[in-house]
Amino acid sequence: MWDRVDRATFQSAVRAAALVFVAAWLFSDDVRAWVPVWAPILVLLAAEVEFVVRGRREEQRPPGARVPPGPEDADLGFGELVEDEEGIHFLPPPPRPERSRRRLGWLVGGLVAAVVVALAVRSDRAATWSALPADARGRAEARFAAEASRIAGVPVRVRCDEGYAFTGAGSDTLGVAFPASGLTYLDPSVCRALHDLAFGGDRRAREHTTDAIIVLAHEAVHLGGERREGVTECLALQEAGPLAVRLGLDEGKARKALWSAFERRLAERTVIRASYALPASCRDGGALDRRPADPRFPF
Ligand SMILES: [Zn+2]
After folding, report:
1. DSSP string covering 167-205
2. In terms of CB atoms within 10 Å, which end of the chain has fewer, N or C?
3. How many angstroms does the Cα of residue 176 sit away from the middle of ligand 1?
4. 218 C-alpha vs ligand 1 centroid, how far in Å?
5. Contact 292/286 with Cβ under 8 angstroms?
6. pTM summary value
7. How far is the CA of 216 from the centre of ligand 1 (A)?
8. How open is the CA angle 213-245-240, to the nearest 5 degrees?
9. 220: nearest Cα among 114, 129, 143
């Protein structure tokens, strides 16, 4: 039966299907949640292996079928005709640099493949909040809620927004707060970073960990009743230090990380939405300094 299927068509169909699948995998959290990263790669690999194996088994084309360009092709640009005392001669074209084009193709293909794998690994890491067992997620949410309540000054709930129903356009992007109901939804990547710090023993002060801590503090400040974004972010930067230490980050690392987060936000002041920019009073000794006696700011 397989012999009757046009192999090229079959191969193209498999490749196209695999590409569609990889694209769906990259851009849909639902697909990612159900299909592991190596599945599309295996499908593509199987298709390529089949292609090579069948090609090897095929009979070789009889040699000598190709005729190199001769004198009659000179007017087409293949070589040229030159005349000297002995008559007219055909000068064949210089040999083409062999295979360089094919090598370039491999190089470009390899590069594209590397980029796709890097993207896949990155988005896999971001999506793995849903990969945690349910009880681990529940325990983590309870811990985040306790921390947020402490910052807000009132009991609040924290939910990790697995379906991206609330985070996204129109909110703070990585979190959204509903002060009236004492509830905040956080982006799953934020929850995962916080979980890894508090429960997973990942104590590196990486930028996305620091940002996740600031997001939790930011939404907690909103739940405490502050609505102005710039003020909220300034207070969050100051709350984030002690919060980071409570979640397990080394104090020295937390101070460094928050200082650079503060610097980043000051540098971004002109490019971010005006309402999100830190107010001028967000500085050591300024009106928003919650620890005026402490010369270290924000933590
Ligand atoms: Zn906000």
Report:
1. SSTTTTSSEEEEGGGTEEEE-HHHHHHHHHHHTS-----
2. N
3. 7
4. 6
5. no
6. 0.61
7. 10
8. 35
9. 143
